[in-house]
Amino acid sequence: MPQVSVGILGATGMVGQQFIALLADHPWFTVDYLGASERSAGKQFREAAAWRLPSRLPEEVANRVVETAAPGRAPKLVFSGLDSSVAGEIEAAFARAGHIVVSNSRNYRMFDTVPLLIPDVNADHLRLLDAQAAALGWSGRIVTNPNCAAIVIALALAPLRQFGLRSALVTTLQAISGAGYPGVPSWDILGNVIPHIGGGEEEKIETETRKILGSLGQGRIEDHPVRLSATTTRVPVQNGHTASVSVGLEQRPPPEAIIDAWITFKGRPQEMALPSAPPQPLVYLGEQNRPQPLLDASRDGGMGISIGRLRPCPLADYKFVALGHNTIRGAAGTAILNAELMHREGLL
Amino acid sequence: MPQVSVGILGATGMVGQQFIALLADHPWFTVDYLGASERSAGKQFREAAAWRLPSRLPEEVANRVVETAAPGRAPKLVFSGLDSSVAGEIEAAFARAGHIVVSNSRNYRMFDTVPLLIPDVNADHLRLLDAQAAALGWSGRIVTNPNCAAIVIALALAPLRQFGLRSALVTTLQAISGAGYPGVPSWDILGNVIPHIGGGEEEKIETETRKILGSLGQGRIEDHPVRLSATTTRVPVQNGHTASVSVGLEQRPPPEAIIDAWITFKGRPQEMALPSAPPQPLVYLGEQNRPQPLLDASRDGGMGISIGRLRPCPLADYKFVALGHNTIRGAAGTAILNAELMHREGLL
Amino acid sequence: MPQVSVGILGATGMVGQQFIALLADHPWFTVDYLGASERSAGKQFREAAAWRLPSRLPEEVANRVVETAAPGRAPKLVFSGLDSSVAGEIEAAFARAGHIVVSNSRNYRMFDTVPLLIPDVNADHLRLLDAQAAALGWSGRIVTNPNCAAIVIALALAPLRQFGLRSALVTTLQAISGAGYPGVPSWDILGNVIPHIGGGEEEKIETETRKILGSLGQGRIEDHPVRLSATTTRVPVQNGHTASVSVGLEQRPPPEAIIDAWITFKGRPQEMALPSAPPQPLVYLGEQNRPQPLLDASRDGGMGISIGRLRPCPLADYKFVALGHNTIRGAAGTAILNAELMHREGLL
Amino acid sequence: MPQVSVGILGATGMVGQQFIALLADHPWFTVDYLGASERSAGKQFREAAAWRLPSRLPEEVANRVVETAAPGRAPKLVFSGLDSSVAGEIEAAFARAGHIVVSNSRNYRMFDTVPLLIPDVNADHLRLLDAQAAALGWSGRIVTNPNCAAIVIALALAPLRQFGLRSALVTTLQAISGAGYPGVPSWDILGNVIPHIGGGEEEKIETETRKILGSLGQGRIEDHPVRLSATTTRVPVQNGHTASVSVGLEQRPPPEAIIDAWITFKGRPQEMALPSAPPQPLVYLGEQNRPQPLLDASRDGGMGISIGRLRPCPLADYKFVALGHNTIRGAAGTAILNAELMHREGLL
Which of A66, A215, C63, C74 has its CA 20 to 30 A from that of C115? Predict the structure, then answer.
């Protein structure tokens, strides 16, 4: 199969580096363009940015010259890990110029005609793209993936819709990698908990999840009626967002039915066997002290969500703990899955 | 004022060492007896146990010979930091022999005639002691303090009773010192979260809190009707349990009224100006990223509870974050406050 | 090629689990026997021990019944991750019964006829085995790998012998996984440094390194004359031992010659292309803030040693920093490399 | 005694906050001036900077308006915790304007007529000030304290000069607070070691220590002839720099003589009983796993240095481990001690 040439916007940042790492041996996509700020432009990647991941920086990326993130020389498909302070303008410029922008940034997530995709959950939302050109006047398209914590929560909640999902009260314990680089100062987090995450993290969880779980009707998304309440905290963990969740369900199925709904849950990525798709998006762990970031976040290359501790909640109906890798499943990995889906759907 | 001689049961353990540290310069109590297991008995304290706290081990305690924890040579008042595997038997033996046992262990907490005391909250529960001798056949008495996480939560909830406190859904992020020593292996917790705490931690929070907040009637405690749901997690923090709390209130007061209820909350220890009483049991922090264990757990010598982030909860009525020092306010410090209260009440 | 059946002694411990993880997809060796203490015997592995590694526990190992570690039903080749308190007796029993024991334990390392092997460095020391039977009266054999810190140091020093290596003064910063499980209590190490490692760690580095770097003459090892001084510390790092090293060299080569000696260093595992051999045992990193445990310890599957910061030492001749993965290259990985070498040499 | 009015330059930074904390209840000095960058000027301190220390921010400092750090309205005595990028110019401006600048910055440390003071070690170096005005043309004066790691090392080495101190080979394990705020990104240091500290840390240790230990002759310092070699590393520790040290001594005293030299070491601060002086600058700990940052860095209010593990070094003569609190003894605390000494010497 011919390789698809791709670019990365915001290539030097934390998410950009994760894109590079995950695309290193990708069967379909080849990184042919690195876009970043003017400060980095003109330098080889290895000089423009310190490589901050344990995996090896591919030699051909290391040597590639970083360009100013602007349409012109970039491939049609670009992944965006741009900081939200600049993503709005730059992504629009690329979309206007005819690019397919698969973005991890928050700027366009809640736009009516922009899919907020987790392909395992709402692949059909891609059909929003039909209306996007008309609405936004772009010849290209923007597709987004949700906030890193919202992805974990939405994936865990998706199979519960069949039981009449009414509410979800969530407290998260989020990893430092979610804050990018330099991100959280070590003085603030070493041996500490910060009970707040800036940039509207709690609101993102509360609003994005409803759109993700919503249904496509008449060219727009009908939000799922689930009511959400989130408290987000930062903990001294490298990778892996943990969520303590209490859910209200209209029906009250036995626990076995819930676990079964989780472990049998499958979506388009599994049907299509997309390269980045985990065989089973949700794994249930029976041990009472799991899931744990160190042991479980990297399951299936960081694309598997781990759930555990399902038990009745004295206030809601059930409570459980969910965990996912925030920079892979919660960011670059889901973005790549989005592009894989679009490629297979003939949308590239 | 003549000094009161006191003993410490379980003196070599984590809570025992915290007792020693807090009593080092106590204006009323002098440590004259150290009880521990047979393995330690007969050795000077400095040889029986490595001192694991940053504060200095007092020389006279260091040189004192540890004895087998058994009544006989101990002062009338003994503090117990015994492991629950042995506390049941040993504390009963002391109570039977006429001692006042002020215990941090869980074994007798839920007994009908045993006060489960946080003096700032329920000093009147001491009157349960009148019935204790008859019920349990002891010439001495046992008074207990609650579980370390329950203390933080109960203190934060106590002033909310006036608003018709109906429910509290809690997720905790608990420090490693709560697990004693050697406690949590570093391999399990360094850079990790363990979403479970053994020994029935969640149930303790759910049941003890109702007793603490309950009212004394007819020689027994009527549990407070608040419904609780707790998920407890362990995080890589040295000291300080954080709780993310959503509360249901029958009345729905404005936030200012809630904050006012917290910061004006006072109990007997404040009225009596007991030596270990913080001037204000509950402090409200207006910064949106507080309270934090590293910055706030040691407020007022570790006896002050810090609360922050009060805001409406889309599911319950309000949500907030509370924090307290788990081995001081959550254990030895409250036990000492219990003894101070009893001393001033003439119950020693 | 027919698979070689192997057993693991001490299978439930930290090193035992690392053996299981590394052998999961091994091209030659198949785990057919799990030996542990009587407490575990008779149980399936999944019940006998909590799996503590991020990699997946292979299903067939999970289901395998653990046996008491005693010769009888074990394959000829057994890997030992036994605790040193029991390794002496059990390994001797296996050797006496004709097994090839490839051990990570310290008990026999300094025996005259027991090879202390790092195959990249001293593969020829295997010839000691000729004399082992006569000396120790065993029909089987014991081969050992060095202490985890000594492996890192010896590998970094090996190529410097050509420059007249006279002395090495070392301070290590060692990961907690080196202490096994439960190992270091989190209370002792979270946000802390412990400037001491028990069990004679410093002496092991000082004595084992001289044997490893020594030369084989007349059926015995002549220790290398390098003089060593080690200070060992424990730091809150999951995996990866770092060593700050100052070396005295009789010749004083330019830095380029030293770096060249490191990066061109190769041994039998590389010549034979053994399955666990890294292509290049020693990698030199030019960035001034490397090597780092998080970024570099897992290089080449944890088998590559990373070196950096070579510069003149005002007191010795040169100083540098070396790093290796302590439970892979420093333990199970080198043991497996030992067995691979023996297999290819026809010694199994 | 009348209070001495003092100012703090760089008041919002990490060292500035440490000055504020340590001066909160100072018997002689009252903070009447806070100087910082223009960005902070005009705001109350509480708005200009987040308070990042566990100790309480004094109310009167919280409410004080920060001014641009420039001479004019500041008290005669100013403490400087300015960043070295601006300290050179600003401190000179204050000195020129007649202020006594007691600085923690590195800019003037190695100037011939600027004392590099640890009052316990080289109080007599204050006499350099006689020549400072002539040399630098200032009506005021600048006095500096050494680099945080150099202070720990110099204090531990000072009593060894009597044994013919020839060499010291040092590897440090330094706390993150030494890097200021925001300082080290958590992504770089959580569960990690960085074997390098920027800004010439190693060179500072190697050069400053010789000046500190040097002797005053003819109006200038004769460097001590000790030869030093330092490797500096950053470890995930909040406070407390640990140093592994090997020393060469011309005489080879028995270990008891060395320990005795340490524990009996006293200087002018002890003779004068200065408010910030620890009763004993150096404490020797007999336990083999001490000193440790968590347990020992805060000894005597963070002003005491802890030493342990003295033993023969196979390469140098002796080796040991030393530890001190890097932002107290290693920075603001020693600066305050410098000012106390000058006050008592009548130099303010």
Answer: C74
